[in-house]
């Protein structure tokens, strides 16, 4: 009580002055139409500025959740695109003993580690077996192929990048369906090689290269890159083809893991 009285004694005049200022301001605004309009307009501007910045702050802290939701939505759309491509090509892939009519599931994940500077590069994802990931599944992003999963635990997954000497992916020229193998020899992370294409194949600069679908990892038609050059060595029966990769491996953030629901059946048959 003594402290309160001391506070009022020391700052009472200031408090009284502020209260009188508020009272005067209220009377001016209330009984003067012109000042009242100015006050309303100014208060709306201030309130709008506050709400705008508050919304920006809340949206910023909600970006993680929004990105996750968008990634999941994109995954569903990509599943439908792949399914429509298979149907248009005449492939039959309905699985009658499950509730799903899709051969592939698309699982979103975020890249938390990635290397492009070595000869044997890997990447790490923030999703694991608890999200349906397993060894041997293909990984893509919004532009094309990223790599293949090689190690998976409950929470994380590690994959071999297309920028790895041991990575081999079956690809094809989209225009005429001549197929071959995509591989990387090191050097430029934006370029790769395509081999095993016979010398009678019709090749053109700018030809689109896509996954061939000749494995249980990637469905057919996933974009890989485009032909920038090709050469036929004397005495060779196969072209040496330069491919500009469609995926920028140096800026990976969100990717999609392809889960082939029939992969085990295909592998058992091929074995």
CATH topology of the largest domain: Thrombin, subunit H
Widest sheet, order of strands:
1-2-5-4-3-12
Number of strands: 12
What's the total helix number?
4
CATH architecture of the largest domain: Beta Barrel
Spans of at least 5 consecutive residues with low confidence: 89-99
Number of domains: 2
Q: How would you sum up the global shape? A: elongated
Biggest sheet overview = 6 strands, antiparallel, barrel
**Helix proportion:** 25-40%
Radius of gyration, CA atoms, in whole angstroms = 31 Å
What is the CATH first-level class name of the largest domain?
Mainly Beta
Give a written overview of the molecule:
The protein is α+β, with helices and mostly antiparallel strands. The chain folds into 2 domains: 2-61, no CATH class; 102-271, Thrombin, subunit H (Beta Barrel), CATH 2.40.10.340. The protein is 34% helix and 30% strand. The protein has 4 helices and 12 strands. A 6-stranded antiparallel beta barrel has the order 1-2-5-4-3-12. Helix 1 (2-31) crosses helix 2. The longest helix has 30 residues, at 2-31. Residues 89-99 have low confidence and may be disordered.
